[in-house]
Amino acid sequence: MTISIPGISDNLVSATGNGLRKGSGTGKYIMTPGQGREVSISVTGRLPNGQNVTSSQMFRIKDIPSPLGSIRKQYGYVKMPKSSLEKSTVGAELPDFDFDLTLNTTGFTVKVPGQFAVVVRGNKMDANAQKAIAKAKRGDVVTIFDIKSSLVGNTTYKIKNAAAVSIEIQ
Q1: What sign does the dihedral 26-8-15-29 (CA atoms) show?
Q2: Using CB atoms within 10 A of its CB, is residue 110 exposed (0-12), middle (13-18) or buried (19+)?
Q3: Which residues of the chain have pLDDT under 50?
Q4: Dihedral sign computed on CA atoms, order 153, 155, 156, 159
Q5: Residue 98 has what pLDDT?
């Protein structure tokens, strides 16, 4: 995050708060909030006349919500030919989230009617998943669930499993 005080040079501004640390660059900070629902950040700046000004603000702490599972960037219920599904990438998306976060799909499970569920590592259908999808018939609904993902740039943060996506075979 960037923290500044209007009219005061960034190098004369400092900020403190639980979980707040200086980032790279002037005025840049990284917030890693702990427990609780709120955090207070205090900002101090030195005016040109040498006087210090201080301001404090409370911020809500919100967790990253559960992502939506996606296939070809579509959510929920999707219709497509099985040949397209076999080559598709499974994603986890955070539509309408306040921040632009990129998620990397690390694994998922595919269930084709009449077949055993296939666990896949990565974001593409492996040979076993493709074999199961090849046996699907027109009108079958293939379900992709247990979609696991990680946050690009912070793989230690635990992202909740994404909501399932259902694909009707055309």
Answers
A1: negative
A2: buried
A3: none
A4: positive
A5: 85
